[in-house]
Specification:
Elements: E1 5-8, E2 12-15, H1 16-20, H2 35-47, H3 57-68, H4 74-86, E3 92-94, E4 110-112, H5 113-120, H6 124-137, E5 141-145, H7 151-159, E6 164-169, H8 172-182, E7 192-195, H9 198-209, E8 214-217, H10 223-233, E9 242-246, H11 252-262, E10 269-272, E11 276-280, E12 289-292, H12 300-304
Parallel strand pairs: 5-6, 5-8, 6-7, 8-9, 10-12
Antiparallel strand pairs: 1-2, 3-4, 9-11, 10-11
Helix pairs in contact: 3-6, 4-7, 6-7, 9-10, 10-11
């Protein structure tokens, strides 16, 4: 039995050839931010359903378009080439961190661009999910809290080239690097970067956009500021609005913030993808729903059985 099969308490007997076929993009413990995240991933993975277990038309379409779509877009190549370029830049940049900071780097006054790129940029997997989510939802306005070096904003703008994009960054040098990166791509030259503390720049940015179709929150991985930003956004939210909360298992505080927000009375549908959580405000969902989802290739035995 040991040569052909593997036993898992939650899942029963899994054929060994299925185990060997699990994809490389499945998160490993070594890739987790910390022990807390690794522990939470075990719980997430046991609960996660795939496209084969989704029944509502909207959720099925979202899962198909975001998690199951394996098409490769030209934008992926050019943006990943930019990532590789930044991973080799030795230039030092001044850094003032108003958020939770990088777990690897701490709160330094100077960092090399390649260090910021290695620890702060959106991962390739999350970037592609974000691209596909934007492409699926087709927002007219996009607001990002936490620009970093601009890669996530580029992925979102590449997916919705006519959308108005505003991104907020607390660190001036990071914003300057991001603006330089935006200038490389014709479709991204109208991305607007607002520099300053998020509590100061968020409301003016919302007023500038007038409506909040798609919001990516990736700038302050702490519970209290995250909840405060949501309250600032509330007057600008509509049935079409979607909020993506990054790194919901970064820390216990971030998980608490995620749970509070997904249970907010205004939220009608929430989706846990482990890497980030998605909040919907759709009136079509008359009863509040919460779903934990994963790509089917992460759990191939669901299809095999």
């Amino acid at each position: 039995m040991l040569e052909k099969e593997c036993f898992c308490k939650e899942l029963g007997v899994i054929p060994r050839d299925v185990i060997q076929g699990i994809p490389k993009d499945l998160p490993t413990f070594a890739s987790m931010a910390n022990f807390y995240a690794a522990k939470q991933f075990i719980s997430y993975f046991a609960k996660a359903r795939t496209v084969y277990n989704t029944h509502s038309p909207f959720l099925y379409a979202l899962t198909q378009k975001v998690l199951e779509d394996d098409r490769h877009f030209y934008a992926f190549d050019e943006l990943e080439a930019l990532r590789q370029k930044m991973l080799n830049v030795e230039t030092q940049m001044e850094f003032v961190d108003f958020g939770a900071g990088s777990r690897d780097l701490g709160k330094k006054t100077t960092r090399k661009i390649k260090e910021v790129a290695a620890t702060s940029l959106i991962s390739p997997l999350k970037a592609k999910w974000m691209f596909r989510l934007v492409d699926f939802l087709k927002p007219d306005t996009i607001l990002e809290i936490g620009t970093s070096l601009g890669l996530s904003a580029l992925y979102m703008q590449a997916a919705a080239r006519n959308a108005q994009v505003v991104t907020l960054e607390g660190n001036p040098d990071s914003a300057r690097v991001a603006q330089k990166n935006f200038s490389i791509f014709p479709y991204a030259r109208n991305i607007k970067v607002e520099i300053g503390r998020f509590e100061d720049t968020l409301e003016p940015a919302l007023q500038q956009l007038r409506k909040a179709d798609f919001i990516f929150m990736d700038g302050n991985h702490r519970k209290t500021p995250t909840l405060a930003y949501f309250e600032q956004m509330r007057p600008f939210l509509s049935e079409k609005s979607v909020i993506i909360l990054d790194d919901i298992y970064w820390s216990e505080g971030m998980t608490e913030a995620w749970n509070l927000l997904r249970n907010d009375a205004q939220v009608s549908l929430s989706v846990d993808l482990f890497h980030f959580g998605i909040l919907f405000f759709r009136k079509e969902n008359r009863e509040k729903e919460h779903h934990v989802l994963a790509p089917s290739k992460w759990k191939p035995w669901v299809r095999a059985w």
